[in-house]
Amino acid sequence: MTQTPPGGITATAACELARVTYRQLDYWARRGWVSPSVDTGLGRAGRRLYDPSDVVRLAALGHFGQAGLDVGRLGPALADLDLPLGSDFLVVAEADGAVAVCPAERLRTELAKPRARVFFDATALQERLGPTSRRWVTGAAKSA
């Protein structure tokens, strides 16, 4: 997954992939925490198109919210985070609102640090977003 798929991922598909509701996506998009990178949908009946990094952000926000963290504090930090798509990584969130990316192989080191943290492993989501999952992408031929 080295480039944005042609056409982008629809908001509905992004919600399904990230396992969040459309209402959550809409609210987080209006707050600027998960912005549609491919097409903002302005002026064309609001059809927003997302790239894979947007979907990873969306899934991470949903995960952290389900874990009981304050998404209002984490959202702005996650919006600015550079995600290394195509590699195994974890998004690490701390209760104070700090968010960072950690290579998956450093998990034991991170767990040994005396802080309360919640981890989001993007590996499974990236596999679902992979090149064979063309059904999520608009303007792409559907695979059988």
Question: What descriptive keywords fit this protein?
Answer:
144 residues, alpha+beta, Multidrug-efflux Transporter Regulator, Chain: A, Domain 2, three-stranded antiparallel sheet, two-stranded antiparallel sheet, 38% helix, disordered N terminus, disordered C terminus
Description of the structure:
This protein has a single domain (9-136), classed as Multidrug-efflux Transporter Regulator, Chain: A, Domain 2. The strands form two sheets. Strands 4-3-5 form a three-stranded antiparallel sheet. A two-stranded antiparallel ribbon has the order 1-2. It is globular, with a radius of gyration of 15 Å. The two termini are 20 Å apart. The chain is of the alpha+beta class. The longest helix is centred in the middle third of the chain and has 15 residues, at 52-66. Helix 1 packs across helix 3 (52-66). The chain has six helices and five strands; from the N terminus they run βααβααββαβα.
Blueprint (SSEs and pairs):
Blueprint lengths: L8 E2 H8 L3 H10 L17 E2 L1 H15 L4 H9 L9 E6 L4 E5 L3 H6 L4 E5 L1 H6 L16
Helix pairs in contact: 1-3, 3-4
**Span between termini:** 20 Å
Number of strands: 5
Strand content: 5-15%
CATH topology: Multidrug-efflux Transporter Regulator, Chain: A, Domain 2
Helix coverage percent = 25-40%
What is the CATH domain class?
Mainly Alpha
In N-to-C order, the SSE pattern is EHHEHHEEHEH
Radius of gyration: 15 Å
Largest sheet: 3 strands, antiparallel
**Count the helices. How many?**
6
Architecture, according to CATH? Orthogonal Bundle
The total number of structural domains is: 1
